[in-house]
Amino acid sequence: MTVAALLILVLALAGCGQGKGNQSGQAGGQAAGQLQTVNVAFDDSVGEAGVILGDQLGFFKQQGIKINFVHFNSGADELTSLASGQVDVSRGIIAANLFNASAKGIGIKLVADGGTNIPGRGYFELALKKELAPKIKDYKDLKGLRIAIASKGSINQLLLDMALAKGGLTDKDVQLVVVDSFPDMLTAVANNSADGCMQIDPLITKGVQQGILSWWKDASDYAAGEEISVVMYSPQFAAKKDLADRFMVAYLQGVRAYDDALVYGSKDRDKIVNILCQKTFLHDPKVMVTMHPPGLDPDGVIPKAGVVHDQNWYMQQGLVKKAADVDQLVDPSFANYAVQKLGKYKKPA
């Protein structure tokens, strides 16, 4: 599994009347049995829970939508396809090429949260070698360590830089070890090729279970409010307002089912875990329940300040030359529509 994000192949869409949603957000005015296909990029990670559950629990079908899951070999291919309208929707990390495309006038829209660290349960954070972790008391103690990251100039290095800054350090004070596969980072640490890694869960949980890694500082301590992944619409799909709105209603229903079961409660947990274990790379129900889950905002809110921070960091790295207009890039209108139909999320009692 690589850092690359996920996405969807666009489809010719069948015509559909503009129906009013009922209280559950269900589409109205849709011809019986007539579904519009939306091709969605997919990387079989747990962070895809909103789309997976929206599909498996029938929420997309209620909105007159059929999901076609599409795999991409790289994030660059995915973004190119999204920008050209060959794909409709993508969920992926916030990368420099996204800001560069937007600055050139390519109307990709960031429409919903696709992954954040939950305070106290961060899923994308710095983990240290088990034997070393007790000796690294504070951020300044990271100096001189060999830290594995999936790639330079990416969200991995950005988060690491934020941790280093807490100790008055920069990436010049550590040795960056590029390991382009998250699972291989466990091997790198186990073989003493790295002292720690910017890793994702459930691989941190796996590393802890195998005696390789230890959890260290929670990401909320050094990267509070940071947006890791987002749901994106292609310019062409965003222009199909009715369809894009209905997609978001079903997507957030899937997100809320995930949050109810694994983040804020245990509602229908066995059912949700069973679905996710079948449809993602994680097949162990025990790990699914005990891991630090990706945070998916039940109202789709994107922390805009985090997006601004990301762009500023990429500009400091020289990877973004011209700033994109973040107010144009982030479009909350689709999530706002869905929340209007569904109501504000309420955590299970």
Automatic annotation (TrEMBL):
UniProt keywords, alphabetically: Signal
Domain of life, source organism: Bacteria
Family annotation (InterPro entries): SsuA/THI5 (IPR015168)
Compartmental location: Periplasm
SUPFAM superfamilies tied to this protein: Periplasmic binding protein-like II
Domain SsuA/THI5-like positions: 49-256
GO cellular component term of the entry, any: periplasmic space
Similarity field: Belongs to the bacterial solute-binding protein SsuA/TauA family.
Record-given protein name: ABC transporter substrate-binding protein
